């Protein structure tokens, strides 16, 4: 786990160095995160080594928001006359983020095959679409239940 934390710090420092050397307007940790993402895609072994550390950090994610909250409280006096702009940007940013996320998920789900989905699993388990319309399934459409008698297993119809 210590090696994974060192890897995270190395990529952050690389990002800071690139941002500083090239005078980029992008923060160094963002560049470091992109470099880490590329390295994780290129090396599955690195991904396996980083996974446990990532899960440990995610389990304590709420603690990582404390410094940001303290920073907001400390900077509240400098934003005093701009509350409307801050509130509007928060609402607009949240709405935009949710909309883009929903559109991306819709695009991703549209490309996934639906064969073998829940509806197919229900029909293969013996349930028919008439059961959802209020009619009882026929005796042959009921799922079979296996009953063990001694060493033999015999299928029987469900009641």
From TrEMBL:
One Pfam short name: LrgA
Low complexity: bias regions: 121-136
Location in the cell: Cell membrane
Membrane topology: Multi-pass membrane protein
Transmembrane segments: 25-46, 58-77, 83-105
InterPro entries: LrgA/CidA
GO cellular component terms listed in the entry, alphabetical order: plasma membrane
Superkingdom field: Bacteria
Keywords: Cell membrane, Membrane, Transmembrane, Transmembrane helix
Annotated segments matching region Disordered: 116-159
Protein's UniProt name: CidA/LrgA family protein
């Amino acid at each position: 786990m210590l090696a994974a934390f060192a890897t995270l710090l190395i990529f952050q420092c690389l990002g800071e160095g690139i941002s500083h050397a090239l005078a980029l307007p992008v923060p160094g940790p963002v560049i470091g995160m992109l470099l880490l993402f590329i390295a994780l895609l290129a090396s599955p072994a690195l991904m396996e080594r980083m996974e446990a550390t990532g899960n440990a950090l995610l389990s304590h994610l709420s603690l990582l928001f404390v410094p940001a909250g303290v920073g907001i409280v400390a900077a509240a006096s400098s934003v005093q006359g701009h509350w409307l702009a801050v509130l509007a940007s928060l609402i607009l940013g949240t709405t935009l983020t949710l909309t883009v996320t929903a559109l991306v998920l819709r695009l991703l789900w549209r490309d996934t095959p639906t064969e073998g989905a829940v509806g197919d699993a229900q029909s293969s388990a013996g349930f028919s679409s008439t059961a959802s319309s209020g009619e009882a399934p026929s005796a042959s459409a009921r799922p079979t239940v296996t009953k063990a008698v001694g060493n033999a297993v015999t299928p029987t119809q469900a009641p």
